[in-house]
Amino acid sequence: MSFINVTVNDICDECGITKPTFYKYAGSKDELILDLYDVTIHELITDPYHFITSNTHFEQLIYIFTKLIRDTEKFGSDLFSQMLISNLNENHNSFDFRESLTRLCVTIIEKAQEKGEIQNMNPPEVLYRSIAYMFSGYEMSWCIKNGETNWEEEILESIEAVLDVRKEYRISRKAE
């Protein structure tokens, strides 16, 4: 069932809650989708395991974007399309940079530059902004194509190209 066809009653029935309870925590069904990124970002920031076990800083960066991709796919193109539409109708700031994620990624890029993993020596803030906006473009294309594209491989190749990742640190299939 697509998001458009889901009613607040359907959501309440599935969650086992009443409509008043639903409206106590969410103003509408649209509000439920507006903070999807925040859930993923919170998980990224509060779970250091994958950062500690990564062998390189570039692997840490790729973990972040892979987690964003996989969570986006888990929620589905229909849901993300609705989030895009909702933000086109009125900016709900769903796609604004989150300070905690920005600081984390900028630091990782800076460390990867220092270690020679990333050869593009432009300011880490500029590089992060570039790959973050690139991610959004791939995500929109994925939504437009109803999830029928392998955007994970495409975004990883693009990140490697923009950052000019040394060959031995690349993880995309094209690097092989």
From TrEMBL:
GO terms for molecular function: DNA binding. Residues 7-26 bind DNA. It comes from the Bacteria. Keywords: DNA-binding. Residues 1-44 form the HTH tetR-type domain. It holds the Pfam family TetR_N. This is TetR family transcriptional regulator. Signal peptide: none annotated.
